[in-house]
Amino acid sequence: MKRRILLGSAIALGMGLSAGVSMAETPPLEVKDTYRVGFAQMESNNPWRIAETKSFHDTAESCGWELIATDAAGSAAKQVADVDSMIAQGIDVLFLPPREEKPLLPAVMKAKAAGIPTFLVDRSVDEAVAQPGEHFVAFLGSDFIEQGERAADWLSANFSGDKGIIVELEGTTGSSPANDRKKGFDDKILQDDRFEIVASQTGDFARDMGRQVMETLLQAHPEVNVVYAHNDEMAIGAIQALELAGRKPGEDITIVSIDGTRDALQAIIDGKMGVTVESSPFFGPLACDVMKRYAAGEEIPGWVKVEDRVFTIDNAADHIDEAY
Ligand code: GZL
After folding, report:
1. What is each CA distance from 309 to 146, 150, 170, 203, 319, in whole angstroms?
2. What are the tens digits of pLDDT across the range 209-224?
3. What confidence tens digit (pLDDT) does each residue in 290-302 have?
4. Collapsing DSSP states into helix, strand and coil, what is residue 202?
5. Which of 2, 42, 44, 48 to mutate to test the pocket of ligand 1 (most atoms within 8 A of CB)?
6. pLDDT at 11
7. What is the DSSP letter of 123?
8. CB-side exposure of 234: number of CA atoms within 13 Å?
9. CA distance 70 to 298
10. Alpha helices (H) along the chain
11. How far is the CA of 48 from the centre of ligand 1 (A)?
12. Which of 35, 120, 162, 219 is deepest in the core (most CB within 10 A)?
């Protein structure tokens, strides 16, 4: 769970309170022309993951990275093992998108113990156990709670019915985006008494599992008229299931999602999806910039927050060419 306490500490710092230097600082990184960089990807089962990995490869040459990139094929245990291997190969710095908040804690702890600075990208670990500025340098990523809240805000403002019966397709169990997108959306939408969440189940951020879960939940809840998916892949899968069952997404059921993939923007243009809140996968350039600032001795905030746009029928066509 990405806590907003970080914002509190940023505000405290802004108030001029002294930034107590942690006794257990993160390992230093010297300024060099080239760096041996580890990027331990969790999986490559959807366009978002593929775009993120490509972003790191595309950044490597310009940032002086000798990039060692691995793919854990959806296994948190293998992702930890991949980091072990990178440590043995003597990487200078680690970029890690932790598949799940708790199982990836050992990777963070081992990298620090080996004197390797770690930057968490696109997902975080359980920050009740591992903190930025002590166990890892920083989390680079979106505010997933805010993404859920923005999805709820759009739904409240654009749903014209008297009663919204919601089915929620959750992301990977135990991952920070799934935890926080659920918290942000559920807390916000239930403030509007027209809405009820009748079912919430993981589709593991995957299109086919999203389709299968939607088929099952549609049989249990034929009255459903809203689907909230934690990512576009599951939303597209849900649209497939709904159309196979004779439903008309965008007409008799409202689809709300997150990411901003090409297929989602096309579904919005086609009138099948209402909104997708952006969650950019293009972390390569940001990772390079933050790493170099850290090496130069700059103070890096514990959360380098990525700002997201919202895509609807009003702007989807303007952005589909840049989508992945
Ligand atoms: C978000 C990222 C999520 C995407 C999914 O930063 O962790 O993982 O929203 C992806 O599409 O699987």
Report:
1. 11, 10, 21, 24, 11
2. 999 999 999 999 999 9
3. 999 999 999 999 9
4. strand
5. 48
6. 45
7. S
8. 28
9. 29
10. 5-14, 47-63, 76-88, 105-113, 144-158, 176-189, 207-220, 232-244, 262-269, 284-295, 316-319
11. 7
12. 120
Q: pLDDT per residue over 183-199, tens digit each?
A: 999 999 999 999 999 99
Q: Is 179 helix (H, G, I), strand (E, B) or coil?
A: helix
Q: Residues with Cβ < 8 Å from 269, sequence gap 6 or more? A: 313, 316, 317, 320
User: Of the residues 100, 121, 122, which should be mutated to test ligand 1's pocket, given the most ligand atoms within 8 Å of the CB?
Assistant: 122
Pocket of ligand 1 (CB under 6 A): 46, 48-49, 122-123, 141-142, 177, 205, 231, 233, 258-259, 279
Structure tokens at 25: 């600082």
Asked if pLDDT for residue 261 goes beyond 70, the answer is yes
